[in-house]
Amino acid sequence: MHEVITLALMDYLKSEDFRITLYLVRKSPLTMLGMTLAISLILFAILAPYIAKQDPIEQDPSKRLLPPSPEHPFGTDQLGRDIFSRVIWGSRISLTIAVIVVAISFSTGTVLGIVAGYFGGKVDELLMRITDMFMAFPRLILAMAVAAALGPGIFNTVIAMAFVSWVYYARLSRASTLQVREEMFVEAARAIGASNLRILFKHILPVTISPVIVQATLDMGGAILTAAALGFLGLGVQPPTPEWGVMVSEGRRFITEQWWVSTFPGFAILLATLGFNLLGDGINDILNVRSRR
Amino acid sequence: MDLRTYVIRRFILMIFVLFGIVVITFVISHVIPADPIGAILGPQASPELVEKIRREWGFDKPLHEQFVDYIFKLMKGDLGKSIRTNNPVVEDLLYFFPATIELATSAMIVAIAIGIPLGIISAVKKDKWPDHISRIFALVGVSMPVFWLGLILLFVLYYKLGIFPGPGRLDPGIPEPPRITGLITIDSLISGNFKALLNSLWHLALPSFVLGYYASASITRITRTALLEVLNQDYIKTARSKGLAERVVLFRHALRNALIPTTTVIGMTYGSLLEGAVLTETIFAWPGLGRYSTGAFLSVDFLAVMGTTLLIALIYSLANLIVDILYAFLDPRIRYA
Amino acid sequence: MEGVSKAVWAVVAVVIVLVVVAAAIAMYKPAAPTAPAPAPPAPAPTAPMITPADTLIIAMDTSDAVSLDPARAYEFASCFVVNQLYDKLVDFELPDLLHVKPEVAEKWEVSPDGKIWTFYIRKGIKFASGNPLTADDVVYSLQRVIKLKQTAYSVLKPFLQSPEQIEKVDDYTVRIKLNKTVAPSFFLSVLTFTTSSILDSKVVEAHAKNGDMGSEWLNDHSAGSGPFILEKWERESQFVLKANPNYWKPGEPALKTIIIKHVPEPTDQLLLIKKGDVDVAVDLTADQIKQVENQTGIKIVRVERFHNVYIGMNVAVKPLDKEEVRDAIRYCIDYDAIVNDILKGAAIKWQTVVPKGLLGANPKTPYYKNVTLAKQLLAKAGYPNGFEIELTTPPIYPTIDVATKIQADLAECGIKVKIIQMTASQMYEKYRKQGLQLVLAGWGSDYPDPDSNAMAFGNYRIKQLAWRNSWYDDYAADLAEKASVEMDTSKREQMYLNLTDYILDHGPYAMLYQTVAQQAIRDYVKNWLPDPTFYYLNLARVSKVPSG
Question: Which chain B residues are closer than 8 Å to A138 by Cβ?
């Protein structure tokens, strides 16, 4: 098993394909911007303890709602906590949520989609009906329902969001699988007697991965926003954990005078989501260019 | 298969899908360890009273019995009664639904008005500055929390600059039109009440913009992608080589085909608009389905939750169905086997 | 690429046209209000009134309103509205909450054993429909509450259990027989609650369906003799009240219309009142009040509400069963920081279970943050390293901030608190089943008598707060029951002082603060009196005078 995957990966990295991809990335400023933002986010998350020296949950109610100053670059919130450190530490939370949600929905969805697309028949029909049902559900409403059922908290929020997102991956990967299934080289491989598993990994997976990756990057941004929406409704992450969406929601009472409480975490959400969206768009473009060669 | 069979088949599938949704929602809302009756009666209520009301509502029966009851009632068009409002859910939905439709539809118009032109500009001026700017503009729309944007716009455009009115559908002093469709704009138009028409449009502006801006991003993206695809096709190259003016090429040939996938996305976006309405309606004090469903979820008003979810799922499915049929109709190459 | 540029310009032109059209619509301003010209700004520094002078517009979060049927109404918003639509036998007139005033009843008598009451009804009162108000209506209204057995009935239940206890003596006299002795002031104050409103029996019965005694119709219609009539209730949108032309008190109401606009978002209410598009905003947060209190044209009306916020400790959950542990928690909380820094004017420190302003209110505040003492107490109880516990609270402000602060405070004593946010419906489900550990909740008194709080916090037998926190204390329960039937007022007061002292030392509560309501009103609104409850403010006397 391992050899199959490793070989496939190494083949890819050495290929002309990959080098052209790199070139195309460098050529598109927006994609570069997206990548920069996304990487910065990851760096902030990893290096949080070194960048934000103040404790994000330490309260000092006598220092409530102070405007930005050298001591508190982003000001303090309604409990006297330093907003700068909360935003930096919050990147860990938001990123973790986004990554886990996307990872879960991505893997389950893609696998299910490929299986359904490849084997077809009843399995496929069943999957299609189930995805139809989930797609007819507006995502936020379903997330609200699940969060209300399981109770608030990070873990439950993540489950709620993953529960509603997997369908898109399933649909996408199924569509690609259907396309590829009929291709000549797959027929050929089957004729030689290659096992289904091998075919799935070596031939089908690389093709289906592309549109799915685009969706995944876009969903990272979406996950951050859904977490914010759940926080707005009181169903999200619990205090005192700093999560950007909850911070924006909490700060909305102060928007007329202490604008900094909502604005800085709001900007963080904006930049992070924008970064992922640009990245996703960029990858989409690159893939389109490549598929036309 | 031909168009008619396709439509019938899709329709039947839709019914199955909706049934599945009923099951899922029922399970979810009954799994919740909450006591909506108790919460509504308040902390002061005695346990006996809570039990009595629960029995009146039939919530003490075993789950499968409740489910079967619900299905039978559903087939008669009865969605039960809301615990909070004490009205039949159908009545409640009919009451709150038009406001959301008004908001979602005008947001859709805004989204299309922003999205399609931006997408065209982006595609035509690919990789040049107009492209970059439109793409960033569109993406910013989906990168910020809808409620935040709403509050900021209210603060700047209503409070500071006074250009737009505060939250609500109509100013208190304006005479309201009779309730025919429930959409104040249409009702005022029908009854010739122009003051109300203009005032309600004015109130509609900010919330539609906030929601519409959010939705425009996906429209921009798909228009851009689809147009780029099409512009690279051979028949476009042929048209150009025939000497046709670029404008003709763009509008007469390219756009028409590019708009096909765009239409699909518009259908899907309508669904996400309904969901975005949940947050927007709170900020703008808009008495629509979003507010009703938030209240229903937070107090676990079972029947209202199921009714609302069914309604939204129904609209969403119908929108997709119509779009898919249009798609199949417009592009004869597409027929789902 | 000339053709393409043209196409692009065409698109741009369309967008510009759309924007211009939108701007034109935006430029439309509503017609000038029908009010008389605002007074010249010369004298007092005041802002002009831009809402109509005969209409009062209130911005309020009315999402908890369920029904306007007085036999059912129990929430803030519903009771506020019901109070304007109906009269009762007797009523309180702000600011006096100790002595009831005659309303529908012009005088009354009580038998020496406190059980038999006779009310003499005023002649000449007409309902909004024109029907005269007679004993039949009084009997009907009160019997109806008992027959329908809705939540609001719990207020009357302890002493009125069968409709036969209410009888008509003649067209203008009603006799009420209680099934036990009750302190007279207590009974009279219960009669002032909206449950005891007098309904127009003929109109209500005409709309009865399936034996509901008109309840469904009364959800959103009115049939009373009060100063206002309900013109309409658009859920999640607004209540519209119009002056009752048949109101029996001459010269009232001063206003013709009252509009209660449903605005769930406090920030929206803030913007509306600052702009002057509403006359009153009731749900501003403490910080928002700070923002507007110095703005020209805005006044803040403050009053201590009969509402206390507390931490409930479930005695059945170890280690909360040990009194030292409960004491330790009480000595670990920074009450001053909560009241002064977080709530800033929206609360006062109050540590006993009967709120300030009621008979028997006990002003002692022995608890303060003393980490050393708290740790000693914990060590004595056998928990020198603290313990872990859950704190449940609904996700609303400012309680979430308070909960977070308490979490930090208790951490200093070694107690690790996990906060669990739960919506009200989930929380009450568990609370009623004694399923919570620590809970942060509030209790509002139903009527201006200490009995409501004393029984709830002290008497486990009625399955209220004491029971929900598994505190089965017979001494407290007995004392609460005795106090509710004590006819001598000063003896009664002493009993409540004793009870509150006892609960202070042994009870399962850490009383945090008493809520101070802060309502923002424009200064041209007159006679908006501070109301410690939410249903005594009589809007009939409120008026709008533009001169500031």
Answer: 271-272, 274-275, 312-313, 316
Whether C9 shows a pLDDT value over 90: the answer reads no
Q: Are B67 and B285 in contact (CB under 8 A)?
A: no
Asked if B26 contacts B300 with a C-beta cutoff of 8 angstroms, the reply is no
As a whole number, mean pLDDT of residues C220-237 equals: 90
Residues C326 and C197 in one domain: no
- Chain C nearest C-alpha distance from B337 (Å): 38
Q: Rank A137-151, A226-240, B15-29 by mean pLDDT and report only the highest.
A: B15-29
At C77, the amino acid letter reads: A
Residue in A30, A249, A273 closest to B143 by CB = A273
Amino acid identity for residue A253 in this structure: R
Strands C388-393 and C438-444, bridge-based pairing: parallel
Report if residue C247 sits inside a domain: yes
Q: What is the pLDDT of residues C529-541, one digit of tens each?
A: 988 887 888 898 8
CATH at residue B313: 1.10.3720.10
pLDDT digit string, tens, across residues C137-192: 999 999 999 998 887 887 888 888 899 999 999 999 999 999 888 888 888 888 99
Helix (H) or strand (E) holding A223: helix A205-232
Which partners does chain A have (≥3 C-beta pairs < 8 Å)? B, C
pLDDT at position C27 is 44
pLDDT band for position C84 (50/70/90)? very high
Residues C380 and C234 in one domain: no
- Interface with B, mutate which of C235, C392, C422 (most B CBs under 10 A): C235
What are the chain B neighbours of C11 within 8 Å (beta carbons)?
A: 117, 120-121
Where residue C474 sits, what CATH number does that domain have? 3.10.105.10
- Contact C360/C492 with Cβ under 8 angstroms? yes
Domain that holds residue C352: 306-516
- The pLDDT > 90 percentage for chain B reads 3
Q: Which ipTM score applies to this complex?
A: 0.77
Contact (CB, 8 A) for B224 and B119: yes
In a domain, residue C467? The reply is yes
Asked if residue C226 and residue C255 are part of one domain, the reply reads yes
Question: What distance in Å separates the CA atoms of residue C99 and residue C121, rounded to the nearest whole number?
Answer: 19
pLDDT at C257 over 80: yes
Provide the number of structural domains found in chain C: 2
Give per-residue pLDDT as tens, C21-38. 555 444 443 333 333 334
Together in a domain, C66 and C132: yes
pLDDT at A280 over 90: no
| pTM for the whole structure | 0.80
Q: Of C189, C87, C81, C213, which is closest to residue C138 (Cα–Cα)? A: C87
Total number of domains constituting chain B = 1
Give the range among B319-323, C105-109, C199-203, C530-534 with minimum mean pLDDT: B319-323
- Per the domain annotation, does B72 fall within a domain? no
The answer as to whether C22 is a domain residue is no
Mean pLDDT of A91-109: 87
Look at A250 and C174; give whichever has higher pLDDT. C174
Full domain range(s) for residue B188: 89-330
- Residues C225 and C318 placed together within one structural domain of the fold: no
Is C67 close to B45, i.e. CB distance below 8 A? no
Residue B136 lies in a domain: yes
Nearest to C198 by CA among C108, C116, C92, C126: C126
Beta carbons of C288 and A238 less than 8 Å apart: no
Q: Do residues C377 and C245 share a domain?
A: no
Residue B53 lies inside a defined structural domain of this protein: no
CA–CA gap between residue B289 and residue C421 (Å, rounded) = 25
Asked, for residue B83, whether it belongs to a domain, the answer is: no
In a domain, C21, yes or no: no
Give φ, ψ of C520 to 5 degrees: -95, 125
Strand positions, DSSP E, A72-215: none
At C176, which CATH number? 3.40.190.10
Residue C479: other Cβ atoms inside 10 A: 21
Chain A residue whose CA is closest to C395? A234
